[in-house]
């Protein structure tokens, strides 16, 4: 949406509100550079000092990253996400994997109980997109599709608090996955997620939770918790029997 010239009272707060809205609405996505200070002055019709103060306030809250000589970039879509990004940026892969495993496992169990037909169509589409992204050799495309898939699993839980919490961690998880994958899709094979989707489809919460729990540890180079062999064999037999198993590129 276009920026508008604010009223003269409480200018800084109004500018902060408008800039925050550009971020939270997705108009300025995470990772993008926001307009320059002169451009914001022209669009908003306020003094440079007001723009500078507003940008610094949003940077302090973790939404923006001011890079001298390069510009100001969107770091997170909410204050909570910004705090998490700063707090967990130096966390070990194992710690991140444990947190992600806990959240995704709980979400998958709920998704198996609550998924809708629309959720399943979305998961099927994202599963194909993830496979196709790997086949292209484009690491950034694969990271984006993998993150989108896991966000969709969490969304299928229909727990608003869990969805928001996971979304606030999403940018940190994306950075972590990007580092793990590298520029040339270093892992020999991406982990096949078709078993998770099938478990959610059939309402098998136990298996869905176990499958989701182990994926983060795979990325972290750790075997981590796994579904027991009996469940794993049962799921493979079901996938083979109904033709629902999807080959992974």
From TrEMBL:
Domain HTH gntR-type span(s) in chain numbering: 9-77
Domain of life: Bacteria
PANTHER family reported for this sequence: REGULATORY PROTEIN GNTR HTH (PTHR43537:SF47), TRANSCRIPTIONAL REGULATOR, GNTR FAMILY (PTHR43537)
Alphabetical list of InterPro entries matching this protein: GntR_C, TF_FadR/GntR_C, Tscrpt_reg_HTH_GntR, WH-like_DNA-bd_sf, WH_DNA-bd_sf
SUPFAM superfamilies in the cross-refs: GntR ligand-binding domain-like (SSF48008), Winged helix' DNA-binding domain (SSF46785)
Protein name: FadR family transcriptional regulator
Keyword line: DNA-binding, Transcription, Transcription regulation
Residues covered by region (Disordered): 218-249
Organism: Streptomyces albipurpureus
């Amino acid at each position: 949406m276009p920026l508008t010239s604010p009223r003269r009272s409480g200018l800084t707060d109004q500018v902060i509100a408008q800039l925050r809205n550009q971020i939270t609405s997705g108009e300025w996505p995470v990772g993008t550079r926001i307009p320059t200070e002169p451009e914001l002055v022209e669009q908003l019709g306020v003094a440079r000092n007001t723009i500078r103060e507003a940008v610094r306030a949003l940077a302090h809250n973790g939404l923006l990253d001011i890079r001298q000589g390069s510009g100001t970039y969107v770091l997170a879509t909410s204050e909570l996400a910004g705090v998490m990004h700063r707090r967990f940026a130096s966390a070990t892969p194992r710690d991140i994997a444990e947190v992600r495993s806990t959240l995704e496992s709980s979400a998958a169990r709920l998704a198996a109980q609550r998924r809708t037909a629309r959720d399943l169509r979305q998961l099927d589409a994202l599963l194909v997109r993830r496979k196709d992204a790997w086949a292209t050799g484009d690491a950034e495309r694969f990271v984006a599709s993998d993150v989108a898939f896991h966000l969709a699993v969490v969304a299928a839980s229909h727990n608003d608090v869990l969805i928001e919490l996971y979304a606030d961690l999403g940018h940190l998880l994306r950075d972590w996955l990007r580092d793990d994958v590298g520029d040339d899709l270093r892992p020999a094979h991406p982990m096949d997620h078709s078993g998770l989707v099938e478990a959610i489809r059939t309402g098998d919460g136990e298996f869905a939770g176990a499958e989701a729990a182990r994926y983060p540890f795979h990325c972290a180079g750790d075997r981590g918790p796994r579904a027991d062999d009996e469940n794993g064999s049962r799921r493979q037999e079901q996938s083979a029997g109904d033709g629902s198993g999807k080959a992974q590129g």
